[in-house]
Amino acid sequence: TKIVTKGQGPDASSVRLREELEQVDPETLRKLLSVLRGLLSQSFDRAKVLTEIVDQAVALCGAARGFLLQVEPADAKAAKVRFLVARDLDGKPLKGPSELISHSVARSVLAGGGTVLSEDAGADERFSDAQSVTNLQLRSVLCAALEVKGRIAGAIYIDSTADRGLFNQSH
Asked: Of 17, 69, 89, 103, which has the maximum CB count within 10 A?
């Protein structure tokens, strides 16, 4: 799949997005684009659109839960994370979302950008010191940074406590 951007010269974030999209399975990309087109043609209610994006990410990837995190910069050193959406696989809101994710995973993405994919977070050396991974019994975890104008604005985080290897590079 070749991704083409319109406009003047591509900036760094659009080049990075293009490179990441070229690695996505074409069928998954078609499904995602179809969902986004449908959302944009039906509603401009921000909360509904964000909720639907998380619901579709959970459904397309086979996750048990999905979260949309927003970074609210207080200053250059510290940023507060706000949960815009927290949903289960049945599309029901989750209470206490801050207690339901691995902050180690989220912080690594929010601090450095990019994506964290773990096929078995409990056995993943990157998170061997993360108490939340153990306490939550996380298995498959996928967290991807969301950038706006070259700044990390938040992340989408999906996981499963039941299945290992649920997510792969095509997601």
From this structure: 69
